[in-house]
Amino acid sequence: MPVARFVADRELGAANRQKEVIMLSSEEIIRTVEMLKNENLDVRTVTLGISLRDCASPSADEVCGRIREKVQRHARNLVPTCERVATKYGIPIVNKRLAVTPIASVAESLSGEDFLRVARALDQAAQEVEVNFIGGYSALVQKGFTRGDRTLLDTIPEVLSSTERVCASVNVASTRAGINMDAVSLMGQAIQETSRRTADRDGFGCAKLVVFANMPEDNPFMAGAYLGYGEPECVINVGVSGPGVVKRELERAVQSGKKLTLGDLSEIIKKTSFKVTRVGELIAREVAREMDVSFGIVDLSLAPTPTVGDSVGEILQCLGLEAIGVPGSTAALALLNDAVKKGGAFASSSVGGLSGAFIPVSEDLNISQAVQRGYLTLEKLEAMTAVCSVGLDMIALPGKVDADTIAALLADEMAIGVINHKTTGVRLIPVPGKDVGDKAVFGGLFGEAYILEVRNINRSGNFIRFGGRIPAPLMSLNN
After folding, report:
1. Looking at residue 29, what is its pLDDT?
2. What is the pTM of this model?
3. Cα angle 248, 251, 257; round to 5
């Protein structure tokens, strides 16, 4: 069996490199196979990064033509290659995606209308090579705007409402630079306008937009993927997800009747994450080798789906909580996030991206139900983002929430990222015509969510309108 051979070879290879002798039992091999067959272990995304820096031109026709030609040249074999590798090892690859250089820099000299043409060229190129999404309609504005940055931000609502596969991301804050509150205000307006333009789909356009602090350059997950300026010409980054696997391992341990501490459970999560990371690195290296491009990183993120049993919320229940959101949830999530990172770091020297636990409300059935039942509030979610891998993710809000309140929510999350020297990303989805308790339906892996209450709306406008920049914290002076 290919998976069994892979696990044995990789485990023994790691042992030899560390001058240790580790014998892999048949039971351990069988458990890894069970992870694939019964517990929703998969490679969530293989993302090919492509540099578009050489596509820049003062002519929109040239930029669009160069983008389509380069994407076709480098990505035309991505989907067939992923399918061959998935068949070879019996490991499902759910999504195949592209990430490109921030378009704000590639199209810097173009007009707003030309930016829209570039976005449509990206969408068409992604469709031609049959990938799910293309990320990189992006700008890095944590310290200020260039002309191209500002044009990109202004065109986000039109782009996300008129394209199918293009995803946008904007980095408005960093620990080194502080928080660009002018950009935060503009993103509040962009989110509101994108929601309005996609009202017939419950504001779905906002699901393709992430606002970041400390945005990573090698994140393979959408909607925040882009190819950073320090990355190779072409690179394969892989996102592996296994909340169902972690949950089942914890259930086995708890049901064994042995007396366990939280430290013991952390060790189980760590060992499971080690195995999952090995699977991800195998796929990443194999796809990169076949396509003759660089291998980048494995992002070991517990990214849930709307499927029962594939939930971060259910993992927290295995740790003894009645539901995600009750007191103790932040501590349990911190334990989970830390153990996942430790297991991944031990398994591979190429762990990157976000790597940890995601809590996207609509994409996790258990979390969505916790919102419906009143266990989980917006304030509790914000507290939990201080210890997980992202921020307020895939959260449906009442359509009546104003742009300044949205911007203030963004600012709060950016502050958590800046002060804690971590990535925080925000996907807020105001749903036009719906209010607290109503359901927003996005479909597929995006799932559905009950709309959360936002208290004290229309109370933050004066703060947001001061604008300017919240200075970087003292910890940024670490040279």
Report:
1. 47
2. 0.90
3. 150
